[in-house]
Amino acid sequence: MSTFQAPKGTYDLTPPRSAKFLAVRAAISGPLKNSGYGYIETPGFEDVALFARGVGESTDIVSKEMYAFETKGGDKLALRPEGTASVLRAALEANLHKAGNLPVKLWYSGSYYRYERPQAGRYRHFSQVGAEAIGTEDPALDAELIILADQAYRSLGLTRFRILLNSLGDKECRPVYREALQTFLRDLDLDEETRRRIEINPLRVLDDKRADVQKQLGGAPMLRDYLCDACKAYHEEVRNLLTAAGVVYEDDEKLVRGLDYYTRTTFEFVHDGLGSQSAVGGGGRYDGLSEMIGGPALPSVGWALGVDRTVLALEAEGVELDIPATTSVYAVPLGEEARRVLFGLVTELRRAGVATDFAFGGRGLKGAMKSANRSGARFTIVAGERDLAEGTVQLKDMESGEQQAVALDELVAVVRARTA
Ligand code: ATP
Ligand code: MG
């Protein structure tokens, strides 16, 4: 161990577990790439005001969890706590919405930062894969995103996840409900901070995890009873499309989520093996966000799935991912001359597309064979002076134990044929 450790609330991804993270990212992005979503990458930090406006001043994310700082040049920046605001900012900046091709469908993958109290499944640095479909209001688009996330989780072999679904209404019906809810909440026995929340973002009080608060919320007016006809019809259509696709979901009228900008469809993916950090992903429609950050009206929908918690979910379910050995061939030279010849062959094999590794450091046969085993390689190539004198190497099949001499100038072709 060095003098230093990973900062509090962070951890390193190291082999072999890091392979699971790559597999999870690939599993989530696969269905997106296959459905017309293009890859977008934005900076790890943005103008702090983008998040203040785009995520919402009253959210925990902005008010408590953001890594905000001032640069030497006096710019006020923040490490990105989430992806949607940045992606929309970038799409607007590049005028992607003006190319006459709506919706603009984008996917991303990266690191996010929140100053939270570290615990299992909750870190200060974590990673998400996300998707946004910008500029179109169509229940099929909301359904598409939920179906693709479901497909991603299933392709990983997860079964103990559930999809929670709700509608938050729109700018017609939500304000009416908001007021009714505020009137109800103001009469309850609540602490100062929660009373303040009633005035800024009352829907989030419904989300309060404390039992004494939940008990008082029993008779709260429900948004479902306030949805306008257009929102009701839209939500019905999303539900019908999901059902037709065979995607099982649960209606959860208390689901409001942490972000201010959600409208209509809102959903969360929870996993039952994760204890209190049970949300593996979430998202929804955010029809007002573009205007909130100075853009035109662009109704949009998206989600972000947490890679860290998805890996934890796999481990909780005991799912072993089928991660193929990265090395197909392992070369073991015996002696100086063999080292030069085999290193040359290793380079040739690699250039021919065969995943190959080499016993570095001039180790003895026993130690080198141990490394060959550990690498998971299907074949080893062993050569000493006598083999080279005959112009051959020994090619060993690690599964069957079979060994054959192969001429040096035929090796690449033989190995390629047998690893194809
Ligand atoms: P939570 O309710 O658990 O705080 P959230 O609503 O803040 O989650 P989102 O902003 O919707 O989460 O982010 C989407 C996903 O990103 C979450 O479902 C989760 O998997 C992951 N995520 C969010 N915050 C963290 C964190 N601090 N550490 C690890 N993963 C996180
Ligand atoms: Mg959170």
TrEMBL record:
InterPro entries registered for this protein in UniProt: aa-tRNA-synth_II, aa-tRNA-synth_II/BPL/LPL, Anticodon-bd, Anticodon-bd_dom_sf, His-tRNA-ligase, HisRS-like_core, HisRS/HisZ, HisRS_anticodon
Can you tell which superkingdom this protein's organism belongs to? Bacteria
Q: Keyword set for this entry?
A: Aminoacyl-tRNA synthetase, ATP-binding, Cytoplasm, Ligase, Nucleotide-binding, Protein biosynthesis
Enzymatic class: ligase
Compartments, as annotated in UniProt: Cytoplasm
Keyword Cell cycle on this protein?
A: no
Q: What is its EC number?
A: 6.1.1.21
Q: What's its catalytic activity?
A: tRNA(His) + L-histidine + ATP = L-histidyl-tRNA(His) + AMP + diphosphate + H(+)
Q: Give every Aminoacyl-transfer RNA synthetases class-II family profile domain span.
A: 24-324
GO MF entries: histidine-tRNA ligase activity
Main localization, broad class: cytoplasm
The similarity comment for this entry is:
Belongs to the class-II aminoacyl-tRNA synthetase family.
Describe the subunit structure: Homodimer.
HAMAP family reported in the protein's UniProt record:
His_tRNA_synth (MF_00127)
**Protein name, per record:** Histidine--tRNA ligase
Protein's organism: Streptomyces clavifer
